[in-house]
Amino acid sequence: MGNLLEHMGVEKDRIHFSWISSAEATKFVDVVKEISDKVRALGPNTKLKKIYS
Predict the structure, then answer these.
(1) In principle, which of 9, 26, 42, 44 could form an S-S bond with 51, CB 3.0–4.6 Å?
(2) Whole-number Cα distances in Å, 47 to 10, 14, 22, 23, 53
(3) In this structure, what DSSP letter does residue 13 have?
(4) What is each CA distance from 5 to 11, 30, 33, 46, in whole angstroms?
(5) Cα angle: 43, vertex 15, 42; to 5 degrees
(6) pLDDT score at 7
(7) To 5 degrees, how large is the angle CA 1–CA 25–CA 41?
(8) What's the DSSP call for residue 14?
(9) What is the pLDDT of residue 15?
(10) How far, in Å, CA of 25 to CA of 46, rounded?
């Protein structure tokens, strides 16, 4: 799957899959914050923009 995403211009660090139970609200919030921080640190996806411009 990583190769397909990279071929489409999406860096693998921008995607995250995680199984979280509906009873784990705190874990959900923590995972969303962690991934959001990581993606913000990567900055804009200029590679994707070049492909679709």
Answers:
(1) 9
(2) 7, 12, 35, 37, 10
(3) G
(4) 7, 25, 22, 14
(5) 15
(6) 79
(7) 50
(8) G
(9) 86
(10) 33
Kindly report, residue by residue over 1-53, the tens digit of the pLDDT.
558 887 777 888 888 899 999 999 999 999 999 999 999 998 888 776 666 65
Amino acid at 47: K
Q: In angstroms, rounded to a whole number, what is the distance separating the alpha carbons of residues 6 and 1?
A: 9
How many whole angstroms separate alpha carbon 31 and alpha carbon 52? 30
What is the pLDDT, as a whole number, of residue 28?
A: 96
Q: Where are the domains of the chain?
A: 2-42
